[in-house]
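Changelog-adjacent note: as of this version, every example in the card shows the full chain rather than a window. The one below runs 220 residues end to end.
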Amino acid sequence: MKESSQAMFPGNTAALPAAGGVLKSCCWKTNGLRVILTWVLLAGICPAQEPGVDWPGRIRALVRVSRLEEAERVVEAWMKAYPDDLEARGWHARLLSWTNHRGEAEAEYRKLLEVTPDDTDLLAELADVLTWQKRDEEALSLLERACRLAPDRGDCQLRRARVLQNLGRVRDAQLAYRQVLAKDATSAEAKAGLEQLREGGRHEVRVGSDVELLNFAQNA
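Full-length structure tokens:
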């Protein structure tokens, strides 16, 4: 359970700030002693978890306008206060992958999957990181698992189709694209994949982190 601001800062916490600001200080008395505290608030959040602080919402807003470094500072500030927060660590992995720190992103994803091995978002996102590094067999293994766990997820099946296409498994890739279209007949990505396969068999499809970021931002 996360500590409240009262537990983290004993004594009179009335002077503690609401979220916002850059560097502030306050002082109060506890047990007859005057205590001075200085804290840093990064990118508009308070690590003391003030009631009503929506740090994930803040990160999504920053991602939508491609302010990724600022988003990283927000999540790192939160993780400093709450290192076991799995949602924050997931965001940290995602931001590392989008800023091309792929080795660090992979390590973070694998640590998270040790705790939540059936998280299909984590499986799919780690597969993206591996695909960008041309580690398609490893990515396919993760996507097969994710698609079994969530058979109705079209985005998972689309990722799987792309990796199969990269591996030259044309018939399997065609089937996967058709499975996407069976659930979403308007999928431009699936239609384009099938057209590429009709034209010339194997065409590598490696959607970059910038495109995945754009897709995420549009749906955040």
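Structural remarks: The longest helix spans residues 68-81.
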